[in-house]
Structure formats: structure tokens, C-alpha cells
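#structure-requests
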Amino acid sequence: MIDYQHLLPEFRGLLSLSDAERLAAIRPRWIDYEFADKLHKMLFAKLCGHRDQPDIFILGEPRMGKTTLIKRFIEVHAPEFINIEGVREKPVLLVEVSKPNAREFLIDILDTSVSPYNPDATESKLFFQVMNLFRSCKTKMLIIDEIQSLNQGTAREVTAMATLIKRLSNKAGISIIGVGVDAARQLLPKDDQYLKRFVTVTVPDWKASPAFRQFLKGFESWLPLRQPSNLASVEMAAFILKKTGGNTSRVEELLLGCARKAITTGRERIDLDLLSQPKWTIDSFGTREVAP
């Protein structure tokens, strides 16, 4: 009798499903790993109001899972809910910025609410409504995604946005978290308000390490394949690392694609031959090159 020890117990039932149903079950899932746990502890300390924890810029290369890390933190530690008085509470608000424009930034924050507002109102009126939103939703943290976009403005615009962010934080008593690519680091010396308020945390690329092998083991633990793939073996991990350049999204893309092919071909496991089949490779510039 096969016990499917390579899968977590809650996923073993998937193996009794049809191929089509198993293929449908192959989708991105959260996998715990060491860096994520450490970052979430920092964010939770900030959410709880620990004064010794400064505001944070979370930086990293594109597709390293920064936004996924943030959304997972909100899901686990600060989901929105309806309190006993029937009021919607949002401990954390997540907004994305596209350029350093104070009015649009305030509107982006108001868009997270179901309450109506007038986008043509004065900036001071929009600010007042944002303050009301923070109070009514009992918001404790504002997370600004794609914060490197603030670099696209003039020195005056960068300073104006820094002043607005500081004002929002001070008046509402909320924490500010910035999320973006490494170019966002250039914001810090541009304005003293950024430099004094934030510390940076870099989401690292994967390296050859026990942590990466543990991540791959976590990945294999839910893939609905009937045979073990031993993704966490030294040989498999090294091949996956070389193929993906240690980029989280590329690792996920590669393994999900290979898992689907393992089912459709009847292999029921991911092996080195299957990992070699995707036609893209990483060139010297880090670009994925596809062979026709």
C-alpha cells in the first residue's frame, strides 16, 4: 500500500481525483519559510505599536514575492472583519502608488473603503476623509506598494509626498511600510523625513542553502503527484536554482508547469529531465531567453 508520505495529510486526498481535477488543484499556494517568518514578526511588532521598531522599506528584485509576503501578513495577522457593532475594521490598509501625486494618493487610500467620496473634492477635504477612514476602520498600519514610483517626481513632489506621509502617520498614529524594488532606496537620501523614519529590509534571492531546500520540500508537500520528486535533494535543488536564478516567481512558475506536465504525461513526479524541458534560459543580463 502506498502511503504518499511525500505529501502532507491534508493533500493526500487529491490523489484520488481525476487528472483534470488534480490539474485544477495546481495553483500558487503560500509556503512558510524562514525569511518570511522573520519579516512577519517585525511587521507584527510594528502593528502592535512597539516603539523600538521603526517604519520599514521592504525592498527586493522584481518577482521575489514582496507583495505576496505582505498579503500573507495581512491575511494571517490583520484581516479585515465586521465587529460586534457592525462596523468594518481594517487594521492594515494596502495601497499601490503609480506616481508622486498627493491627490491621487489620498484617492487610492479612499478607494480601499466602500464609503462614497467625491474625487473632485479639495485636497484638504480628501485628507479629512482619509483621517475619518483610518479612525472608523481602526487602521494601525498603511502599506504603500510600488513605493519606488515616488522617485519619478521632482524634488518638490518627492518632498511633498514625504510630508504627506509623515502627516498621515502622525495625525492618525499609524505605522508606514513601503514596498518596492531596490530603486526605492534612492528615496531615502532625497528627503530627511524618509531617511530618519525608515529602515530597509531586503528580500533576498534564493541561494544554495538548507533554507532553499526546505522551501522546495514545502512546495512538494502539496503538489498532487503520486510519486515523490525529491525536490529538496542537493542535485534537484542545485538544478532548480541554476534554472531560475533564485527568483521566487520563476521557481514557482517552473515547478507548477512541470507538475502539470508530470500529470498529463503520466510520469507522476518531477525529475531532472522534466525540469530541463521548459525552453527558457537565463542570459547574462538576467533576462529569460526562449529558444524557438
